[in-house]
Amino acid sequence: MISLMILDGKTEELKALEGIFRSLVAKNSDEMLERILFQNGKKLMESLGKIDLVHMAVMDVTLKDGVEAAQQVRRSQPSSEIMIVADMSVSPMQYMTPAIRAASLLLRPFSGEQLRTVCGDFFENCQKELFGEKAERNFLVENSDGKTMLPYSSIFYFEAREKKIFVRTKTAEYGIYDTIDRLQQDLPEEFVRCHRGFVINTTMIEKVKLSENLIYMKSDILVPLSRSYKSSIKELLHGKDSD
User: Fold this and answer.
1) Considering only CA atoms, which of 181, 132, 129 is closest in space to residue 153?
2) Do residues 119 and 193 both lie within one domain?
3) Does residue 152 contact residue 201 with C-beta atoms inside 8 Å?
4) In this structure, is the dihedral angle defined by the CA atoms of residues 153, 154, 158 and 164, taken in order, positive or negative?
5) Which domain does 13 fall in, by range?
6) Domain boundary residue among 135, 168, 203?
7) CATH number of the domain that 212 lies in?
8) Is the domain of 226 the same as that of 197?
């Protein structure tokens, strides 16, 4: 599954962008395309907490809240690739910034050929990020629902239950067949064991309550901490919030 978010205030342009990316995914990938469409920056920002994963985002910064919306997408989706849609009414100093970290720019007015070229180059770069030389930054979920690339930065933990492994992100779970012991061998160093059935992403930890045997993670997610892993977690979090 490839997730695409588009914010564009022009209805026909929004439809054109959606159609081009749908065609690009169909021609160049076996994945399904999930489309998340907005014409209002405020509504997009209100919905971000409910959106689990965005691989590609196309952001119209000429809208009233467009620049702020792009910044919030970057904060909530640090691994997302962002393409900016702009015109001469907006200074590049507002959107070509580290707070947005755009990978591509579509500048109005543009022709149909220019639109296809910019979108094609942007999609090719996204493919390299997801499946190419930088694929090690992502975890591939492959099950009966298809394949989904999850950036490691979006994963809270892996949980073993019901003879499966469940990968937890902010708003979703993905089930795969594997074992927690084998899986742990292939994970980046920020993933550590905290329980017989849990491997957590330590970058997501807010605080640890040793007295409660609980790890408090971002987005109000709780993970159990077993006695046998207390000392290693405490050492790992030396100087951080724990008791």
Assistant:
1) 129
2) no
3) yes
4) negative
5) 2-135
6) 135
7) 2.40.50.1020
8) yes
- Tens digits of pLDDT across the chain (243 residues): 889 999 999 999 999 999 999 999 999 887 889 999 999 999 999 999 888 889 999 999 999 999 999 999 999 888 899 999 999 999 999 999 999 999 999 999 999 999 999 999 999 988 887 766 555 688 988 877 777 888 898 899 999 998 999 999 988 899 999 999 999 988 999 999 999 999 999 999 999 998 899 999 998 999 999 999 988 888 887 655 566
| Cβ(58)–Cβ(93) below 8 Å | no
Q: How many residues does the chain have?
A: 243
SS3 12: helix
The answer to whether the CB of 30 falls within 8 A of the CB of 22 is no
How many Å apart are CA 142 and CA 196, to the nearest integer?
24
Give the pair of three-digit tokens for residue 74: 């970057």
How is residue 169 annotated by DSSP? Answer: -
Which residue from 203, 175, 205, 181 is spatially nearest to 193, judged by alpha carbons? 181
Residue 147 within any structural domain of the chain: no
